[in-house]
Amino acid sequence: MVGGEFLSEPDPSMPETLPVHVPATTVARLRAEARTERALSAPLPPGELSFSLRRGRRMLEDPLGLLLHCHRRYGPVFSLRLLTLPTVWMIGAEANHFLTVSGRDHVSWRDGLMGEMIPLIGDGLLTTDGEAHDRARRLIQPVFSRRALEGQITLMVQEVDAALAALGPTPGTVDIYAWTRRLALGIALRGLFGLPADAARRERLGDSFEAGLGFFYHQQWTQMLRGPGSPWARMVAQRRRLVALIDEEIARRRREGAAGEDVLSRLIAAGEAGADRLSDTEICDQVLTLLFAGHDTTTSTVSFLLYELARHPRELEHLLAEIDGAPCGPEALFDGLPHLEAVLAETLRLYPAAWWGPRRVRTSFDFAGHTVPAGAMVQYSSWVTHRLPELFPDPEAFLPDRFLSGAVAALPVGAYAPFGAGPRICVGKRFGELEIKVILLRLLARYRPELAAGYRLGIRQAPTLSPREGMPVRLLPRD
Fold it and tell me: Using one digit for the tens of pLDDT, what is the confidence trace for 387-424?
């Protein structure tokens, strides 16, 4: 039941190995965490485990500073209690590689904090483990091959040019975060799921998804409220609307015999026959998962990238010189824009949208001289690792040339991990990078970005790293 202790009843079409009971209320979650902590098989690694409101507040306001401080004090593995939740943090290149590749069998993704997303996006690639995850990934992966992505370029250009035309020749100050958010959602709905550009279904689906995602932007204490009129109740209502809209689209395509190469068409086809048969519930959850992952991260990356270019005129001039006259086609977008690649990579180093990787420990393991016990919550952070000076000299500076010099290629495995790594590396990584390049090529061909007067960047950490109060940018027409 939604709003009670559990999110849903077991679905007989789901694999038996996929847990379906997830604590949904605040009280249930606190009780579950307390039971888990009492049952830990060994003490947690050293760190700061006393109850501290001050520490909890700092984690909300400055997690990067807090985690870098703890890394300097305790080393690559340490424990932090954030209000009631004790968490083990593993920081550095080796930590990233262990939790994503070499030691991934010790941990569970679904039982980590990604379960918080289940009430909205359900059980998709972000919240499943094992065969349930691998089966869905096998079905979705072909949509992100280079050949398939080349077929998306024209569509992306059309969407971007329409959004730019709406700005007009002299747009002035634009919240580039909000503008890109609408654009990226449109590209995802049309490119990934095959919804036509003028479909009313597309508008309803996009509006409901944004409204549901708004739950995670509320202050943490309001997210804990339940009952009529609460942010939780509104999010659950949007989930129901989204499921109804997607089920309607699935039924329409089956009725009309519509087929295509988009994700939704592939999932529907898999739902009708074969060993990888998917239920409609699974199809819906994969669609919502990819909608979240496909537009939230792109939006944040474009915003941060334009922010840094506006602050670094020299880098902007280098990039403009490269892209002026560059064709918006496969050769340039995949292989012919090295400075754009470097600017994008440096932006992802400084602001990786998926900045942490929460896991739950299944079986105890040793790391850097400490035991991490079964049952513990454990996290790695690419954001923190990317700011370690021993890996990236002058880590706070925006230096795209570090990705042109070859120095990054010589880093230890796991040092640079904005998309994760291993079998769970972001399935839509290449789609997102291509989308960002198209947006930048078309936008910078028309406008030069400047930060709005008095703007100071604030960063929001959940559900992804993003500008806290939007990103006001003056778009000045280029000659």
Answer: 999 999 999 999 999 999 877 888 999 999 999 999 88
Instruction: Round to whole Å and give the CA distance between 401 and 342.
Output: 7
In a domain, 14, yes or no: no
pLDDT at 20: 40
Which pLDDT tens digit goes with each residue over 427-470?
989 999 999 999 999 999 999 999 988 899 999 887 789 998 89
Q: Which residues pair with 367 in a beta bridge?
A: 370
Number of domains in the chain: 1
Which is it for strands 47-48 and 77-82: parallel, antiparallel or unpaired?
parallel
- Does residue 12 carry a pLDDT above 50? no
Tokens representing 228 are 């009529």
In a domain, 293, yes or no: yes
Task: For residue 455, give both structure tokens.
Answer: 């703007």
Nearest alpha-carbon partner for 52 in 30, 79, 26, 75:
79
Question: How far apart are the two ends of the chain, measured CA to CA in Å?
Answer: 59
What pLDDT, on a 0 to 100 scale, did the predictor assign at position 311?
96
Residue 201 located in a structural domain: yes
Q: Which two tokens stand for residue 44?
A: 């947690």
DSSP assigned state of 115? G
| pLDDT the model gives residue 341 | 94
Among 297, 265, 267, residue whose Cα is nearest residue 280? 267
Residue 50 belongs to domain with CATH number: 1.10.630.10
**Domain of 189?**
26-477
Residue 191: the pLDDT is 84
Question: In which residue are the tokens 């016990």 written?
Answer: 373
Q: What is the pLDDT of residue 2?
A: 31
CA 359 – CA 101 distance, rounded (Å):
13
Give dist(CA 75, CA 46) in Å, integer. Answer: 10
- The residue with tokens 């989930």 is 239
Would you say residue 36 lies in a domain? yes
Let me know how long the chain is.
Answer: 479
- Taken in order 318, 321, 323, 326, the sign of the CA dihedral is negative
For residue 267, what is the enclosing H or E element? helix 263-270
What are the Cα distances from residue 47, in Å, to 72, 87, 89, 296, 364?
11, 10, 10, 33, 18
